[in-house]
Design brief:
transmembrane; O-antigen ligase domain-containing protein; mainly alpha; about 500 residues; 18 helices; membrane
């Protein structure tokens, strides 16, 4: 057992701040940008840094629960989480039954395919146990964090700002690694890539252009994170929120995403651009259509000016850019794409071979999200997740309409685009979405909905009929705004 430098920093820090659980959540969001490093190494297994503050947070809150502490929005949180809890229960049960029910009848791709080089016959394995453990931790953390964040003294908007700060951290690491790859600036590989269980692709190139993966295991994973930062910051800026540094994060995250040269990132951004008008129509904010048009026009103008300056200063960039564009356009002809597509086709065939039940969580590893879910948890699990997503989205849109712009609404406006972007990217190149920072974003969304419900109930119970909720909510928003150093258009 060894403790890398990340663990040497995190363990004492979490121990020191254990009595302040909200700080654990801030630390988790920042530690979430280091998925390829390890806080603790046990043999060939590395514990991800986000797991340390998550376990510290859960231990403190569970201890409070044992002592009889309750939170104001527990009923709403549990109602929203019920479909997900049922899906988790089905997943755990199926991971035990399905590998034994269909044992030696179907071929699957194992979790560690490098050791076998291809598909194997289905049988119960350690992957069922390890993936179940991760799932239970993620699910328990989601429910506990959502319940805890309904406390009135928890500032959800500050957590969202920490999420944006993590985006700035990744942008900085991208630029640092780019300088390392191009100019030889020292870069601490051993700090960012200390997890022995991850295959890190940090030396890839697209022709003469280095592919940047920052603190992630591969460029596609880095691009997926940057796409959610980009989509989230773009949407809150379009909505009129003036969160500190959010406007500058839009071009910064876009530039860092370009440095990854990831096809996954480019496609995700293209889908996000197409979704912006749809989101404006769905939310009833017709004025955003003009803002979106202006944003696209300004983006195209800045891109054109940047290209002209870059071509003038460094003309050797032109053939490199042409190579990147050509390799992206011809991605379907590459061997890696063919291999990943074959894995997805094999995974989809398991759905019919198992009569829609799946082979069990942890038994098969696909290349993208939907084949991975269908092949493991089956149609029942996927339908349950769709019910959970629809119920959560509907509740979020309803809560958004009930209050004027404020802290909770800022979280709803910012978190939904981030979750959508992460799911789009995972649908292209990730078999699961199992990172704790992703589940924390879901918990923040659920907590924001529950807090708005509490505000509405309090307004109905204690306020006279002529005093509307917006008046009460505006007073809360003004109180929060007094702590801000910037002068936002919308105080959140």
């Amino acid at each position: 057992m060894t403790i890398p430098l990340v663990g040497i920093i995190l363990f004492p820090l979490c121990l020191l701040l254990w009595m302040r659980p909200i700080w654990m959540l801030h630390i988790l969001l920042l530690a979430g940008v280091l998925p390829a490093s390890a806080a603790l190494i046990l043999g060939g297994l590395g514990v991800q840094p986000a797991m340390v503050p998550a376990m510290a947070f859960m231990s403190f809150v569970l201890l409070q629960w044992i002592m009889g502490v309750h939170y104001p929005g527990e009923r709403t949180v549990m109602a929203l989480c019920l479909p997900f809890i049922l899906v988790v229960g089905w997943t755990l049960l199926a991971s035990i039954i399905m590998p034994r029910l269909f044992m030696n009848q179907v071929m699957v791709w194992p979790q560690k395919s490098d050791s076998v080089g291809g598909r194997v016959l289905l049988a119960p394995n350690f992957g069922n146990i390890s993936q179940d453990m991760y799932l239970v931790i993620n699910a328990v953390f989601l429910v506990i964090a959502a319940r805890f964040m309904t406390r009135t003294d928890v500032r959800l908007d500050r957590l969202y700002r920490t999420f944006l700060l993590s985006g700035w951290c990744v942008v900085g690491i991208c630029m640092w690694q780019f300088a390392h790859r191009v100019a030889g600036v020292p870069f601490p590989d051993t700090f960012f890539y200390s997890n022995p269980g991850w295959a890190v692709l940090n030396t890839q190139t697209a022709g003469p252009v280095p592919r940047i993966n920052a603190s992630f295991s591969e460029p596609a994973a880095c691009a997926a994170f940057l796409s959610e930062i980009l989509f989230s910051s773009v949407w809150i800026v379009l909505q009129g929120y003036s969160v500190a540094s959010a406007k500058w994060l839009v071009p910064a995250s876009a530039m860092a995403l370009v440095c990854t040269t990831s096809t996954t990132g480019f496609i995700t951004v293209a889908v996000e651009i197409c979704l912006l008008p749809v989101a404006a129509l769905a939310t009833g904010a017709m004025k955003l259509l003009g803002n979106i048009s202006r944003l696209i026009a300004v983006g195209i103008a800045l891109l054109g000016c940047g290209v002209l300056v870059l071509v003038t200063v460094a003309p050797q960039v032109v053939p490199a850019a042409q190579f990147v564009f050509q390799s992206t356009a011809e991605k379907k002809d590459s061997q890696s794409y063919q291999d990943r597509s074959q894995v997805d086709r094999d995974s989809m065939s398991l759905v019919a071979e198992t009569y829609g039940l799946g082979v069990g969580w942890g038994s098969n590893r696909a290349s993208s999200l939907l084949p991975g879910l269908l092949s493991t948890i089956g149609l029942v699990g996927v339908m349950g997740l769709m019910v959970f997503d629809w119920k959560l989205l509907r509740a979020a849109m309803g809560a958004r309409k009930r209050v004027p712009p404020g802290p909770e609404r800022l979280v709803i406006e910012g978190v939904i685009p981030a979750l959508v972007a992460r799911l789009i990217a995972a649908s292209l190149s990730s078999p699961t979405v199992g990172f704790l920072d992703f589940y924390l974003l879901i918990a923040m969304l659920i907590a924001a909905i529950a807090r708005i419900d509490l505000l509405c109930m309090a307004a109905r119970a204690s306020r006279p009929a002529q005093l509307a909720l917006p008046d009460m909510y505006a007073q809360v928003a003004r109180g929060h705004a007094m702590t801000e150093t910037d002068r936002p258009q919308i105080h959140a």
